[in-house]
Amino acid sequence: MNIYKKSILPAFVILIPFISNAQTILNYTIAKWYDNKKAASSITLDDAIGGQFTDGIPILDANNIKATFFLTSQNVTSQLGGWPVVLKASRGGHEMANHTVTHPSLATLSEAEINKEFKNCNDAISANTRVASITMAYPNGSGGDNTAADQKVRNIAKQYFIGARAVGGDYNEYNYFDTEENYFKVRSPMIDDGTSAESIANMLSNTINAGGWYCPTYHGIENGWIIVPKILFEAHVKEFIKRKEDLWMSTFANVLKYHRERKSAKLTKVSEDAKTWILSLSDTLSNNTAWNQALTLNIDKPNWNVFYISQNGKDLAYTTVGNQIVFSAIPDAGNITIGKEAPLAVSDLDTPQNTWSVVPNPIGETINIMNLIDGKEYQINITSMSGDTAIKQELIAKNNQIKISTKNLKKGIYIINIDGISHKVIIQ
Q1: Which CATH number among 3.20.20.370, 3.30.590.10, 3.10.129.10, 3.60.140.10 corresponds to the domain 38-245?
Q2: Among candidate residues 112, 186, 185, 111, the one with its CA nearest the CA of residue 146
Q3: Per-residue confidence (pLDDT) for residue 307, from 0 to 100
Q4: pTM, whole model, 2 decimals?
């Protein structure tokens, strides 16, 4: 039997189920790849060659693909004309990563020389982009083999980076990284002007079928060395985009972080009451500054409605897929709060009688604000329960009402404030 609490509101009545204190069972999975994609890909470009930035980035940006640029720092001035172009790319969401200062074969160097190459390149990147480099690629692949000299390079690399890209191979099978060492030997096929769009398509299809990670290496785009003409690079990118429903396309660092975090992450219940279900997502990785990639969680739907999901006070987007709630959260970034459907009392906000109202409430596709003064301009402020601004607009009432679309709002509870008067509303 349902028990209802009735609240008398200006111009309308809301009946909302009472929520009991029955404890919810937590059943969940962490998606193999972000957003439940079948596979992952990272486009990487080596050496800091001019055409990568003048011709490559516009193609990547037009397709909303974020790539990783492994920079040989001494080339930034000679090839790129300085660091401003690198800073712009970094601010655009691309990863700027370490490919040493002088591009030596690292396995032939002393430990002191290897440290100098790593540190000085890292220092240059952080000084000029204000973003730390946390991954690297071995020049000439030297450091990615199985000799004692290569192992020496990797042992030093582990002091600076969370992972490293080698050279050769095809895609990386998901279980290739069952061995921690292989995060510092990520396979990467070399791409040149003989690599057809069809061969890229085949490799991507194989990667998706295997649920793996495809991480190709490019050098020159239109100019430089090991050149891929701009028109061919664009054809390659189109093959990635054709598979965007199945393929997570992100930077080398983000994909590597997701895989490592998922391996060590777990979701646990912290507490539960009539209004909230509190969960904790944690992993066993030590540096939370570096390990900050959100993981996609699939949680069995509880037997109550979900109003909102937030982490550390920030709203999280979520969807309902079948019998599961799907959202992404960062390990060790604060508790996850899932808000339950609960009694709604506008009177809690000391709302005066005979003022504006919202009909209906709960709300579907349109917020209908009623009982306004026709022709008057109103300042509309809509915020989430965690205080984030969702809508802030100045609108004029027509026929004594204002209509606002909810298409850009997530499900949940919001507060609408007009002229200092507030109402709570539900968007479902």
Answers
A1: 3.20.20.370
A2: 185
A3: 84
A4: 0.81
